[in-house]
Amino acid sequence: MSDVKPFVLDFDLVSGFCTSGKVKPTQRRVSDMVAQFANETAARAMVEGGDPLLYEFYGLDLPEDDSGVLQFGTTILYPGKVGEEYFMTKGHFHTILDTSEIYYGLSGHGMMLMETPEGQVDWKEIGPGEALYVPGRWAHRSINTGTEPLVMFFVYRGDAGHDYGTIEEKGYRKLVVERDGKPAVIDNPKWKV
Amino acid sequence: MSDVKPFVLDFDLVSGFCTSGKVKPTQRRVSDMVAQFANETAARAMVEGGDPLLYEFYGLDLPEDDSGVLQFGTTILYPGKVGEEYFMTKGHFHTILDTSEIYYGLSGHGMMLMETPEGQVDWKEIGPGEALYVPGRWAHRSINTGTEPLVMFFVYRGDAGHDYGTIEEKGYRKLVVERDGKPAVIDNPKWKV
């Protein structure tokens, strides 16, 4: 068992920000993900033009070796595009692959793009009041297809771990881009077997 | 691994009700918990007077033998009192005692009353935007101390299980009652060692 006592943290139901003042979010900018966008030239130009913030998320200081612990927090993913590709998170598998994750949409609109190591792909729209079950084995990346920040409350097992490397190396099989003013899911030309 | 595919369910961010139309909540009335209220005479009179609904909660049809699965849903706990004791949930330990639970307050105001088998007791207020970490080993009961339904989104490990029996038999060490118009935590006169 872990010696963690009950505690409460405030996460604003609209903005997603933790207002308890104890926890700072991790921030990711375009410069952290240049190679993961289809249009790297557009990404590099955005980095030179001010390197906008893509998203922020909270990770709590909880034990990472205890399967009875649950990690929780919010992700705040800003609206915007790199070329025709919407702002997105890095996306990851869990290191303990068979562990799931729950997302609960608080504000904004977007999509969760998911795939398994065996090549199954799926995507779900997520908005306010929509709870998404990401089963174990499914890599998951959030994509903001709207005009407001996409804010989601998340929970996953404390020992699940994050495998970002597989996605960084191989990319996702699919991309979400704007076509005729609407989101479209297309094959990723940079995807490597 | 469990063969569950990604899926989305709508849980209204204020009322907590699942609007996807697929899932029905479990309902608990005063008649389901007469012996757990301090004032059983008042509880029996309420049962005869119409047996009001205390709370409703969702449980999804997910595998219960897989530590990689997460169960999620909402609890809707109505305002009211039995004698001077606020409406509350049965409360439970997890059968796999060392598994935690996350509650995220959506609307209304209340309290989570918690205790360990070793006799530690704790309670936390919970309201909109407040995320509560209930560590493994802590039995937990929600209490509505307000005038609106207390609505919370919850997540726990799919194999955690519910041990209601220990609480039904021994009771909680503490009660939450209204004193001078305000919530007060007092010793439970019916608690058995």
TrEMBL record, chains A, B:
GO cellular component: cytoplasm
CDD domains per record: cupin_PGI
Substrates-to-products reaction catalysed: alpha-D-glucose 6-phosphate = beta-D-fructose 6-phosphate
Glucose-6-phosphate isomerase prokaryote domain residues: 27-179
Entry-linked Gene3D superfamilies: Jelly Rolls
EC number: 5.3.1.9
InterPro entries linked to this entry: G6P_isomerase_prok (IPR010551), GPI/OXD (IPR051610), RmlC-like_jellyroll (IPR014710), RmlC_Cupin_sf (IPR011051)
Keyword terms of this UniProt record: Gluconeogenesis, Glycolysis, Metal-binding
BP-aspect Gene Ontology terms: gluconeogenesis; glycolytic process
Pathway(s) it belongs to: Carbohydrate degradation; glycolysis; D-glyceraldehyde 3-phosphate and glycerone phosphate from D-glucose: step 2/4
Keyword Metal-binding among UniProt keywords: yes
EC top class named in words: isomerase
Molecular functions (GO terms): glucose-6-phosphate isomerase activity; metal ion binding
Record-linked Pfam families: GPI
Keyword Secreted: no
PANTHER family: CUPIN TYPE-2 DOMAIN-CONTAINING PROTEIN, OXALATE-BINDING PROTEIN
Similarity comment text for this entry: Belongs to the archaeal-type GPI family.
Protein name: glucose-6-phosphate isomerase
